[in-house]
Specification:
single chain; 4 helices; 230 residues; 7-stranded antiparallel sheet; alpha+beta
Length: 230
């Protein structure tokens, strides 16, 4: 079942990514980097997808860019930013932007992007994940799900997608030395038309003790419903 869910999500993303030819994608990348003011040579990795994330006939360009900021401090040397553009006549117009590095004071990296229609309304939700390095003893991967409200994007859910505090037994109390990861249960979330987010949490270690086999528990969270007209 879990492999089926991963395949389902991967197919959706692959379909969206394959809407343009390689040459068109290269031109689009150049346009996006120019629009966000990042030199192509400073881009570490990026995901640029064309899909409907806003109601209407037109599709938007959604970009998640990992880039070198040019700052010398190791903590803010890498930036992670999300941008959504409308495209008319070949020109990109920014609709929404988030700079996760600037918001969190740096110490972010390895941002990734997915687009999934979790509420089955025909428009994709924007799912962003990225690493958070603020605690040098704990590995954390953060996640956000964003939905269109009618005038902007709103965070429908945010939380930790992966957590590992097992690497330093001397500094971290035993009670905190857990390790786990979360994955969206797409079919169950779709079943509720996006009213409830289902996450499969795989617990690998508790209080420093490895679980063999790992324990899988299902968690549920309300997804904040968009408020049209905001």
């Amino acid at each position: 079942m879990k492999s089926h869910r991963r395949l389902y999500a991967a197919c959706l993303v692959a379909t969206l990514a394959g809407l343009a030819t390689p040459a068109a994608r290269a031109d689009l990348q150049t346009d996006v980097y120019r629009a966000i003011g990042v030199s192509e040579k400073n881009v570490v990795t990026s995901s640029i997808l064309t899909a409907s994330v806003i109601p209407g006939d037109a599709k938007q360009v959604v970009a998640l860019t990992n880039f070198l900021t040019g700052k010398k401090d190791r903590g803010d040397a890498v930036g992670v930013r999300l941008d959504v553009f409308s495209r008319e006549g070949g020109a990109l117009t920014r609709v929404y932007s988030r700079d996760y590095g600037a918001e969190r004071g740096g110490l972010v990296g390895r941002g990734e992007l997915e687009l999934l229609d979790l509420d089955r309304d025909g428009d994709q939700e924007v799912i962003v994940t990225f690493d958070d390095y603020h605690d040098p003893l704990v590995s954390q991967r953060m996640g956000e799900i964003l939905s269109w409200t009618g005038s902007t994007f709103e965070v429908a859910w945010s939380g930790v997608m992966a957590y590992d505090a097992t690497k330093d037994a001397r500094e971290i109390p035993a009670a905190r030395r857990d390790r786990w990861r979360r994955e969206i249960d797409v079919p169950e979330t779709l079943r509720t038309r996006g009213r409830t987010l289902f996450l499969d949490k795989t617990v690998l270690a508790v209080a420093g003790e490895r679980l063999d086999p790992p324990k899988v528990v299902q968690e549920t969270f309300p997804l904040i419903r968009p408020r049209p007209g905001r």
